[in-house]
Amino acid sequence: QPTVVFDNVTFGYDPDRTILHGLNLEIAAGSKVAIVGPSGAGKSTIARLLFRFYDPQAGRILIDGQDIRLVTQVSLRAALGIVPQDSVLFNDTIGYNIAYGRDGAGPADVEAAARAAALMPLIDRLPKRFETEVGERGLKLSGGEKQRVAIARTLVKNPPIVLFDEATSALDTRTEQDILSTMRGLAEQRTTISIAHRLSTIADSDRIFVLDQGRLVESGGHLELLRRD
Ligand code: ADP
Ligand code: ADP
């Protein structure tokens, strides 16, 4: 049974301009998928609908067979984690940043969260101490280090579905590959949806959805799509 289903989803921000045209997507539980397509295709709109920043005008979005409109915000937030492109960190320690998301809905025990996070290879590889304050008065993290903290912050809540919205697109390809290879070890049982544009980052996806002007124009494995070109 697929974890995430877009069932004939039609959506526009304004009534006179449709952005997604009867979109159908099926994302298998535990799979790793990528959503690609030119700028303006509607990729981020898919993410916003999944998080219910907006609801579709027609069609349904299902998580584990349930219409997300019938799911409480609390359980929706528990089911989904997101890593955006430009993560904003608190001027506080790395540990605090991981324990508390931007929404402040982190685990109550900062130390327990820090311990859990410290186990993660993502953080092991940060050259700086866990307790050091980040930001203006403390240490400056590079873009790649910031994203490692942001990813850890999302994963520490253990969401079964994680969405990366251009999470590594702003980084150089080497840093990106480095983070992605760490991620591979961490995301085993999780459903992972990556919105991306570099082909090198999506090559190992189980399935790639190619979106253009709010329509699914192709989907399949990486090699399958290359063969069709
Ligand atoms: P861009 O404008 O991002 O430099 P293109 O216009 O060539 O790249 O491609 C548009 C989108 O389609 C990109 O996100 C790219 O990753 C994706 N894409 C192009 N060719 C393929 C393919 N063979 N398989 C999967 N995705 C592809
Ligand atoms: P992508 O992520 O593929 O670049 P988006 O989902 O961000 O594309 O945008 C799809 C279309 O929706 C674009 O034409 C964009 O201009 C439009 N759009 C995005 N956000 C809004 C908004 N808040 N209000 C109106 N139109 C929007």
TrEMBL record:
<protein>
    <submittedName>
        <fullName>Metal ABC transporter permease</fullName>
    </submittedName>
</protein>
<feature type="domain" description="ABC transporter">
    <location>
        <begin position="4"/>
        <end position="229"/>
    </location>
</feature>
